[in-house]
Amino acid sequence: MLRRLVSNFSTPMIQTASICAEAHYTPIKKQEKCPEGYLRHPDPLSREIVIKGYKSRTGRLIDFVKADFRDRDMAAQFFCEEYSAHNNCCRHANMTFEDFECMAAPGTDLMLDRGDVFMAFDGDKLVATHLVSYYYEDKLNDIFHGELPGDANPVFKVKDDYADVIKTYNFNPAMNRYMALLDTIQPQTGKFLPKGVKALGINEVLSVLPEYQKDGIGYTMLSLGDAECIKRGITHIAGYALAVGTQKICKELGYDSLYTLPYTDFKENGTPVYANLYDGAIVADSLVRAL
């Protein structure tokens, strides 16, 4: 849920998600990959080291670091390439790097400024990134539009059709539909949170290269976000699982489902936008865990 930087339109009956696409952003300066297809950095450990030499499930030694502003283009490129190619909804829409750049570039900028971007390296190869944001009581009203924790009978609002919402966005068609989905599931979280929640961490985006997805890197990166939240005095962390794999990881880590949006209910002119996703996902799941 990356906070929207600029809103040039209104969305009838739907609140605004924190993950955002932007019409105006600094383009990503793409780094040339090595012949094996990886983004590389000659000195990954010159950043703040979080874990050095983690032995993965397959025996690889992985270093986890916090990105800084010099990493902006590399982190944004990785986010844009991996998410547009492998996220189930993006893949279903045949979203390209150019389609998704309007979200990846400003989202990375925002997390470098106000959140955290964790990076995982196998030697000098970038193999995963995880973006995490932190919200305190003074911001909860804004991101949840006044629907705050402690509602005794929260209701997840679903429209009969989202064609009118999709039309309000000014991006490419694939991104317009994706933003409408996010703006449906994310901002309604607040009213489902337990009474007394005054600070919330959010797992924004977790991307792991396909060939590293059996190494336990995703679980480790989520635990890094947890640890950072605890250090900051945050009591709960949320996530939005669009894919089956993400839903499985969150459930194994003890997340509770707050509500789900069946993809069959997210329609444009009567037709489900995300039907028959390649991973078999049938719902988008909003989840939370107490720390």
Automatic annotation (TrEMBL):
GO MF terms held by the record: N-acetyltransferase activity
Superkingdom of source: Eukaryota
InterPro entries per UniProt: Acyl_CoA_acyltransferase
Gene3D superfamilies: 3.40.630.30
Protein name, as recorded: N-acetyltransferase domain-containing protein
Organism of this sequence: Panagrellus redivivus (Microworm)
